[in-house]
Design brief:
With 173 residues, the chain is α+β, with helices and mostly antiparallel strands. The chain has helices spanning 15-21, 113-128, 138-149, 159-171; strands spanning 24-31, 35-41, 46-51, 54-59, 64-73, 76-86, 95-97, 100-111. Strand 3 (46-51) and strand 4 form a beta hairpin. Keywords: Glycosidase, Hydrolase.
């Protein structure tokens, strides 16, 4: 050897880049009374502050989070929406969603402020019995979506349902 460092192997990202590439990124904006995008629940792995009005949260694969979007103009509210999303593994199929890169598995999608408030109350009720909303069975969020889409009241999530979900998760491959 001539005393120089070995050349870097081409063709692959650095290990730290591999970890970042697995993340689902959500762009949050807060311009009071104009655009308010926030995360209602979900454990972010990383936060990048872009400026005082914008930040980007990164979620690890299989993390479940609730993304709330609200915007208005001079005439009133133009969008109010909540999406409950599971961050996907690289290579896994996903649905696209504005401000979520690359996208995720959408478990619940509700539009209109009265319905969004109903979902937020449902989340509050789950947390009131001592369960973190991001730990709830994905099937329950689909149930809430489907019932609300049919103008029906979703069933409450119970401790018994949660225990059963945790036991099923232990035995599934």
């Amino acid at each position: 050897m001539n005393g120089t460092a070995a050349p870097r192997v081409r063709g692959g990202p650095m290990p730290s880049a591999l970890i970042q590439d697995r993340m689902t990124r959500v762009e949050l904006t807060w311009i009071e009374k104009k655009i308010e995008y926030w995360i209602r629940f979900g454990q972010a792995a990383n936060e990048q502050i872009v400026d005082r009005r914008q930040r980007i949260l990164s979620f690890r694969p299989n993390t479940i989070f609730a993304f709330v979007r609200w915007a208005s103009n001079d005439f009133g509210t133009i969008i109010s929406r909540i999406d409950i999303v599971r961050a996907v593994e690289p290579g896994e199929a996903y649905q696209t969603l504005p401000f979520v890169r690359p996208g995720g598995e959408i478990l619940l999608k509700i539009e209109g402020w009265p319905k969004v408030e109903d979902v937020l109350r449902h989340v509050d009720a789950i947390e009131a019995i001592g369960i973190e909303a991001d730990a709830v069975s994905p099937e329950h969020w689909r149930h809430v979506h489907n019932r609300m889409a049919a103008a029906q009241q979703p069933r409450a999530y119970t401790l018994e349902q949660h225990r059963a979900f945790l036991l099923r998760r232990k035995v599934q491959p």
